[in-house]
Structure formats: structure tokens, C-alpha cells
Write a structure and sequence with these properties.
Length: 186
């Protein structure tokens, strides 16, 4: 027997990577969005003028978890590819683009810096393209799992750009907090 590991052992190794990586990627994506208030109910976001191509808010709640799942699976496949040429570069690029991804929501939704967020999403797209190419050199299937993410962040960049154009004062937009009559003494 010339093999170091059987086919079933290799599958289990990939499964272990996936069972660890996918939840971590999904959780960090969820955390970034939650901390920054990136929901359709965000009062600042509701006051912005949106482009005609803006999908309903619920679409984002379906798309992002799906993309994070696919990204996590792709990353697990690359992590599992021990000894593959270019694996280290692919891992580094993935981590870089993912960190950039995690900064977008806090900058856009949290700090209301729409123009800065646009430049962040452009950087994210560039590094995600490089990641996908690097993944393709390690595992073709991992690269294909990244393609929907590339399409979505390209679309998101267009939305970000259009929102920036339609709302040049977005950063300074004042949204009054909800007030309550409780304890007002009136």
C-alpha cells in the first residue's frame, strides 16, 4: 500500500475542515453585519435614495449566508489540499479579501462613509478575483464556488456607487433617534 491516507480518510479530512471553516466564515460575516446594523431596518439606510436596481432587503438576507457558505466550502477545499502548489498564496489571498469584506459593512452602515465603502468594495473585488484565480490553481471546484461571490460583489459595487451618486450628503445625513413619551412628564 503506497498511500498515506485512504480515500475515505481524505474525505473525512475535507469534512472536518468544512465543519470548522464554514461556520466560522458564516459567523464572522453575520457578526460584521449585525454589529454595523446592516439591515433594511437601519434608519439611516432607509433615508437614502436607492437606485432602481436595488433588490428588496430580504434578498441580502438570503444571498450573504449562501455566499459565506460557498466561500467557506471553497476555503476548506484549499486548506485540505496539503502540498498543492500555490496553496499558501491562495490561503493568504482569501484571508486578505475576507478581512476586507468584513470591513465594508461597518464602514458603510456603521460610519455612513459611502464613498470610502465604495473603494473598499473595489479592493475586495480585486483581491477576490486574485483569490479565485489562486484557488483555481489549487482546486478548480474551489474557484467555481467563488464565482457567485464575484458576481454579487460586482453588483454590490454598482449599488454602492449609485447610492453614493444619489446621496452625496450621506455621511452627514442626520437621522433622529426614535423618541418615547414614557417618563416625559407630559
Amino acid at each position: 500500500m503506497n498511500q498515506l491516507a485512504s480515500a475515505s480518510q481524505l474525505r473525512m479530512s475535507l469534512l472536518r475542515w468544512a465543519l470548522f471553516v464554514i461556520p466560522v466564515i458564516m459567523f464572522l460575516g453575520f457578526l460584521s453585519g449585525t454589529i454595523s446594523g446592516s439591515t433594511g431596518e437601519n434608519s439611516w439606510y432607509q433615508t437614502l435614495i436607492k437606485p432602481d436596481i436595488q433588490p428588496p432587503s430580504w434578498v441580502f438576507g438570503v444571498v450573504w449566508p449562501t455566499l459565506y457558505f460557498m466561500m467557506g466550502l471553497a476555503f476548506a477545499m484549499v486548506l485540505h489540499a496539503r502540498g498543492a502548489r500555490g496553496r499558501g498564496i491562495a490561503i493568504g489571498l482569501f484571508l486578505a479579501q475576507f478581512l476586507i469584506n468584513l470591513t465594508w459593512s461597518p464602514v458603510f452602515f456603521g460610519q455612513h462613509k459611502v464613498t470610502t465603502a465604495f473603494y473598499i468594495i473595489l479592493a475586495m473585488l480585486i483581491v477576490a478575483i486574485a483569490t479565485t484565480v489562486a484557488f483555481g490553481r489549487v482546486r478548480k471546484a474551489a474557484a467555481w464556488l467563488m464565482v457567485p461571490y464575484l458576481v454579487w460583489i460586482s453588483f454590490a459595487a454598482i449599488l454602492n456607487y449609485k447610492i453614493d451618486q444619489l446621496n452625496p450628503d450621506a455621511e452627514s445625513l442626520y437621522v433622529p433617534a426614535a423618541s418615547s413619551q414614557i417618563g416625559s412628564g407630559r
